[in-house]
Amino acid sequence: MSVKKKFKGLSDKAVGWLFIGPTVLLLLAINIYPLVYAIKMSFTNFYANKIGREPQFVGLKNYIKVLNKEAIWEKMQVTASFMFWTLLLQAIIGLGLALLLNRKFKGNELLTTLIVLPMMLSPAVVGVFWTYLYNPQVGLFNYVVNFFYDLGSFDMIGSSTLAPWAIVIVDTWMWTPFTMLICLAGLRSVPNYLYEAAEVDRASKWQQFIYITLPSVLPFLLLALLFRGIENFKMFDMVVELTSGGPGSATELASINLKREAFEKWKTGYSSAFAVILFVTIFGFGNVYVKVMNKIKER
Amino acid sequence: MDTSRSYLEPSSFSKKMAAAIIIVYAVITLIPISWMVMTSFKNVDSAISYPPEVLFEPSLEGYVNLFTNRSRQSQEYLDSLPPPKNWYEELVRSREMVITGPSKFLGRYSNSMIIGFGSTFASVFLGALAAYAFSRFRVPLKDDLLFFILSTRMFPPIAVAVPIFIMYRKLGLGDTHLGMIILYTVVNLSLAVWLLKGFMDEIPKEYEEAAMIDGYSRLQAFFKVVLPQAMTGIAATAIFCMIFSWNEYAFAVLLTQFNAQTAPPFIPTIIGEGGLDWPAIGAGTTLFLLPVMIFTIILRKHLLRGITFGAVRK
């Protein structure tokens, strides 16, 4: 307290509130208020396109409806398998690329920058141009596949067995650099003396990998997967433009379904309940994951 | 000591192998992007030929189609017109069409610019203030507040889109530039605060303390000493915010239609207007992705920090 008297102008406390205030207020107005509003609506039978009609309180009816709807569980399954495959592929390829890049050969930095490019692009626009690459008549992807292995004509987007793989491939193409970059940071954080000590103890390269490299990278890899997990749980833009959830509902992820209920059928009350459920899920999983991650870090 | 390094350093053979695999991966991963850029310079026929043409005669048809609206006309009508005034009119006529006016692309592109720059400026400015306060002062519930700010990023956009839609309709902010600027500012704030706090933590407190002893107030010290020191961090943060606003799709498609629509929801509609007009899609995509690619190359040193909200630094 005696410190602030020495200087002129506003006290530190006043400056602190002045500086943090606007950010907190904006977040409350544009983020928290809508969320509270959504929670409130989830207990009513509100339809946002019917102006003037008083919404009625319906209790937990919307929640019960969502949870009892078989179609919702199908969407959750689609989302879960999308997340499983994308995270698995991105973990393996990303870590592999990071291990290779860590050998510090010439041109390393330039190649890293080039590899990273896809993840900075607009997912929606990426979705659009992959529809061209996947085009069954003229697509480059189909041509390349047929060049190596003659499959004849196939339609990645139009077939309900292939479409889920179409979105997994694009997501992996786009986001593997993300896990790669983070794993690379992990690899570079391993102090050299650990390997030196291992060499002195005549540990094989394989043993060094298992006992030194892997445990050091693991927290970084887990962090990368946390970020990707949250993002892919919310996945909307790329898939909407690539398959728009189809064919049928083969690639209809939870947020695409949510958009249909909220902005096409205008079932505001019902869709709000679904949104709250999704939100609680992501928060719950996120928290458990962070706890597990911290446990692994401590070891 | 050099000898102890030698067996840690990977052998030159393993380095070469690693480099070879990485180069192959880089080439494969860049094919889709290069293909889109190539397609933008094809004409409509060569874009839909099979097998796909790698060597082709370059054409600006895609770019002409991207920037114009055209209508198909009969040969007699075309013959009755005065000769074309310029190369693009000639190109369009050769397809038995006439230009009816400019397309909406330029407008959508400049919407993306206005909304991107506006929201970037606002979120970096507000974020820098908050980050400084979090970095230097004892703020009550600091960790909770910081976590709260981060958690706002976890909301699925669709979950808050309906309430925001209703709210904006009441306030008259629906489909306006201002509405989108406010929205993107808020979405970017969490990133801006977290990244900038990291950068400000790295600036020694002694700088501004010295300035304050020399008679600066806290505010003067912040604007005249700390901000210039943090310029690199501020620039990196600004580019990340800009890229996010530039790429954002979900809010844009749900909350804008005519007036404030940005390029991402517009680009997919190009194909509907011209049938299978892949060169135009390619042209729109190329022009849209180019700035981001340049920014990425500028940003490369700070990429890691940006994508992890400052959680991982090098």
Overview of the structural elements:
The complex is a heterodimer of chains A (299) and B (314). The longest helix of chain A has 32 residues, at 70-101. In chain A, helix 2 packs across helix 13 (268-298). Helix content of chain A is 73%, strand content 0%. Chain A is globular, with a radius of gyration of 25 Å. Chain A contains 13 helices and no strands. Chain B is mainly alpha-helical. Chain B has 3 domains: 2-38; 44-103, no CATH class; 106-307, MetI-like (MetI-like fold), CATH 1.10.3720.10. In chain B, helix 8 crosses helix 10 and helix 10 (177-201) packs antiparallel against helix 13. The longest helix of chain B is centred in the middle third of the chain and has 32 residues, at 105-136. At the A-B interface, helix 2, helix 4, helix 5, helix 6 and helix 8 of A face helix 2, helix 7, helix 8, helix 9 and helix 10 of B.
Report the portion of residues of chain A in β strands.
under 5%
Question: What number is the mean pLDDT of chain A?
Answer: 87
Name the CATH architecture of chain A. Answer: Orthogonal Bundle
N-to-C terminal Cα separation of chain A, in Å?
42 Å
Shape of chain B: globular
State the main characteristics:
heterodimer, A: mainly alpha, MetI-like fold, B: 314 residues, mainly alpha, two-stranded antiparallel sheet, 2 strands
Structure summary:
Helices cover 73% and strands 0% of the residues of chain A.
